[in-house]
Design a protein that fits this description.
By secondary structure, the chain is an alpha+beta fold. It folds into two domains: 6-175, 3-Layer(aba) Sandwich (Peroxisomal Thiolase, Chain A, domain 1); 179-328, Thiolase/Chalcone synthase (Peroxisomal Thiolase, Chain A, domain 1). Helix content is 31%, strand content 23%. It has ten helices and 13 strands. The protein has helices at residues 21-24, 32-39, 53-68, 92-99, 116-130, 153-156, 221-242, 260-269, 281-284, 291-301; strands at residues 6-13, 17-20, 43-46, 77-81, 107-110, 135-142, 162-169, 177-186, 194-195, 218-219, 252-255, 310-317, 321-328. The protein has a nine-stranded mixed sheet, with helices on both faces. A two-stranded antiparallel ribbon has the order 2-3. Helix 4 links the parallel strand 4 and strand 5 (107-110). Helix 3 crosses helix 4 and helix 7 runs parallel beside helix 8.
């Protein structure tokens, strides 16, 4: 049996620029009706030049620290889930460490795309087993718009930017949330269905060469949809079964906010009423690794989650990766 692990604070940050579907009509060949009917998305936030991934992460981290009643100096580790960091080097986690005025503590990025926050959570859970005194900052932060091809209307309308953060501890504090269990999965054999190839060592940039579509998100939407629904449903059911629970025992499910059709399909296959599924994709869009922590923070702040509730988190992302976590409030 694993050692107990707790979430002691939550925070989110969204860029200042709100972009509506009508705004996108001036950028790409699309319409508000086309986007809403296929994705359920009405608005999303776009980061500006002075809002890179590290800055979004910093603001979310500061709010999580405040929510936990902690100072940055108490942190022992920093993990950041992202595919759209400021640079290849240094890592966004190291940039964030410096912005928080810290030195010496371990800091690294974790690449699991939209599953990144839950991968960070499970990593933090493992660290607290070894170091029960640990106070770990985990962040999902994305500037997905830096990797969008605005000539591809099937993908660019889906995404938004933002960050969500949590403080994970090995010891309970007043008001902290117990992480009952988590589960991670991956399948690289189908990774070609959702990619950002450009800039890697297998798709090297050449000085003076024109940037092509391979530098941006490329996705086979139909196949990704099928895998995303199947994998999130399966891992959620497996995690519940492992812990002797059913969906009847769960008060709220927070799925990755990819699009409304995926969210609705998950609810249908898990036989869960829509009232038990948290949705903010209409306002936020798909923020990749930031999706789960933003939604979780919102649900707590709005009172949708109350003490005593059990909450199930589940995500799916490029790689493919997928994950689920079970929380007791």
């Amino acid at each position: 049996m694993s050692s107990p692990c707790f979430i002691s604070g939550l925070g989110l940050h969204l860029p200042r620029t709100l972009v509506t579907n009508s705004d996108l009509e001036h950028i790409v060949d699309t319409s508000d009706e086309w986007i809403r009917s296929r994705t359920g998305i009405a608005t999303r936030h776009f980061a500006q030049a002075d809002e890179p991934c590290s800055v979004l992460a910093y603001h979310a981290a500061c709010k999580a620290l405040e929510n936990a009643g902690m100072t940055a100096q108490e942190l022992t580790h920093i993990f950041v889930g992202t595919f759209s960091g400021d640079y290849n080097l240094p890592s966004t986690a190291c940039l964030l460490q410096d912005m928080l005025g810290l030195k010496g503590i371990p800091a690294f990025d974790l690449a699991a795309a939209c599953s990144g926050f839950l991968y960070c959570l499970e990593t933090a859970r493992a660290y607290t087993c070894m170091y029960p005194e640990a106070k770990i900052l985990i962040v999902g932060s994305e500037v997905t718009t830096s990797r969008l091809n605005f000539e591809d209307r099937t993908t660019c309308v889906l995404f938004g930017d933002g960050a969500g953060a949590a403080i994970v501890t090995g010891q309970a504090n007043p008001g902290s949330v117990k992480v009952i269990d988590a589960m991670l999965k991956a399948d690289g054999s189908v990774g070609s269905l959702l990619t950002v190839h450009g800039g890697g060592s297998a798709c090297k940039p050449v000085l003076g060469q024109t940037i092509g579509p391979e530098y941006f998100v490329e996705m086979n939407g139909r196949d990704v949809f099928k895998h995303a629904v199947r994998c999130m449903v399966e891992i959620s059911a497996n995690l519940l079964e492992k812990n002797g629970l059913t969906t009847d025992d769960i008060d709220l499910i927070i799925p990755h906010q990819a699009n409304i059709r995926i969210i609705e399909a998950i609810g249908k296959k898990l036989n869960v009423d829509s009232e038990k599924i948290y949705v903010n994709v209409d306002r936020i869009g798909n923020t990749s690794a930031a999706s789960i922590p933003i939604a979780l923070t919102e649900a707590v702040a709005s009172g949708r989650i109350q003490p005593g509730m059990k909450v199930l988190l589940t995500a799916f992302g490029g790689g493919f990766t997928w994950a689920s976590a079970l929380l007791q409030f």
